[in-house]
Amino acid sequence: MVEPLVPFGPPVRLAALLARPELGLRLVAGDPGAELHWVHTSEMADPYPYLLGGELLLTAGVQLADAGADPARFVARAAEAGAAALGFGVTPVYDTVPGALAEACARYGLPLVEVEPGTTFAAVARAVWRLMADARLHELRRVTDAQRALATAAARPGPVPAVLKVLAGRLGGRAALYAPDGTEYAAAGRGLTPEEAAALDRLVAVVARAQRRPSSAADTVPGGTSGTGGPGASGQVRLAAYSLGTGREGLTLGLALARHEEADQRIAETAMVLLSLLTAPHQGADEAARSAALVRLLLGARPEEVAPLLGEAPWTVVHARGGDPLAPPPALGTPLVDASDGTVRALLPAGRDAAPQPGWTLGVSAPAGPDALAAADAQAARALRRAEAAHTGLARHRPGGLDALVDPAEADAHARALLGPLLDSPALVETLRVWLSLHGGWDRTAAALGVHRNTVRQRVARCAALLDADLEDAQTRMELWFALSRVGDDA
After folding, report:
1. Which of the chain's ends, N or C, has fewer CB atoms near its CB within 10 Å?
2. What does the alpha-carbon distance between residue 491 and residue 425 come to, in Å, rounded to a whole number?
3. 250-271 per-position pLDDT tens digit
4. In angstroms, how far is CA 446 from the centroid of its own chain?
5. Across 274-327, where does the E strand assignment appear?
6. What does the buried/exposed string (b/e) look like for 300-318 if buried means 16 or more CB atoms within 10 Å of the residue's CB?
7. Closest of 40, 30, 100 to residue 64, by C-alpha
8. pLDDT in tens, 324-337
9. 31-54: per-residue pLDDT in tens?
10. Minimal CA–CA distance to 312: which of 372, 369, 371, 396?
11. Helix (H) or strand (E) holding 474
């Protein structure tokens, strides 16, 4: 059997699908705990070439009605391809599930589900996608709640034990810190069996001896009866070890988990960052200062209080966006970079200036002190939008001009009132912005947006109608351009 490819969302249990009363599904054979990663429909005699693994394979048995058809071979090939379960639709070919098919599914361990005549395969697939969407939402909520709890624990007295306790509880297992010599000096969660403890010790030793830091190692061992009878009392236990920090004398985080889902990995990564900051006395001076600034911010310090730890003021904020989402952040000459949401945001200390970067579009703020960093961030965002609209590699915030003559709050309110009819349609806002930046050039706007020139004409005409404005008038264009510079990407 092949391992299924990684799905776009968390898998769902077959039992959850069987529990949907509107589908009327019935389990004929197999384990209802099977995990479904996606749905595929096929009437091929040999489905193997068309399966990726992890599917709920739906069929009406057309291929089994042929003379000489072998249900056992069909099931064997589906199981060999890694199908998670087989859904058999009764009617129009069969009135009941063939006995030979049920026997073959039981023999090969492939769960078999009867799909009643009133239920379409499309309805089954839609139910699976909805369950996956619900599972993804639950996963995101679990990660968010855990990250909030970990951050709160890091702000308490004795933050390291508090973080380990939260981590062990959220992962349903054990979390421990190990010294460079392999001894455990801080831990939380359930006790380990001798087999689990020995296996985790081996992983910790592997990580501690690694030439490159950070490093990690993982293993899976059979679960036994733990000292506390907690999670891991049966089934498989996932063990993992992660180095903290970059020094050879750093600590190692050891984990024993009852499960290993994507959410668990995200929670563990958050804890690793916090523990690295809380247990890193041997960092370089600059790195230690940045870590101290971050910890103080987590503990509620005001930005102006931690600003001296980040470098000499004033700072410049840079926003950058590239064409390749997998490309590393541009080299801006600063370690203060955030690249987590598709837009790279960087903080440049005094004396450093942003230069054009091949493959990137940059927006640069005016220099700002610690009390004006929020305004500088907004300046960089507006400059980036202007650079993208004008198709230039770098745009800087321009002090003075109309922005300097109008109160920012009043300017924002005016912009949203003027553009109000368009704000529910990002496509119209962006088309108008690009069209104005290119001086009303239809072909150039179409090329910039990647649409047909007629689409541009239709959108601009729609903007004119909604705004009740003459877009050929220079005064109107100037006022709209000013308003567009005030609205953000969420417009």
Report:
1. N
2. 8
3. 688 999 987 777 788 888 888 8
4. 32
5. 316-322
6. eeeeeebbeebbebbbbbb
7. 100
8. 766 667 777 777 77
9. 999 999 989 999 999 999 989 899
10. 369
11. helix 474-486
